[in-house]
Amino acid sequence: DQKGKSPESECNKISEEPKCNEDKICSWHKEVKAGEKHCKFNSTKAKEKGVAVTQTQTAGGTEATTDKCKGKLEDTCKKESNCKWEGETCKDSSILVNKQLALSVVSAAFAALLF
Q1: Cβ of 80: how many Cβ atoms within 10 Å?
Q2: Domain spanning 1-53: which CATH class is it, in words?
Q3: Which residues carry the GPI-anchor amidated aspartate lipidation?
């Protein structure tokens, strides 16, 4: 039962290459930085095996990018590269880029399944 546990942490618990590669959602990485685990979550492999896995996101990741534009004046907002003035507020335009990137990755994966 993997409820409440992130797929990454489940894969990180595996310490043997054969067991890691046998798992439907994990892949073994031979070369890793000091302190990193060899067995890591592999979303591509999980999708290919038909495993529905939602990767848990860290709470701080999206908040930090959203807040950097929040509360800025119009002139300052327009000068910032990742911000844009929308209506009466300064908004983070990089979120839109991230959503488009995610959509294109999903589209490419779907197209690969068709061929």
Answers
A1: 15
A2: alpha beta
A3: 92
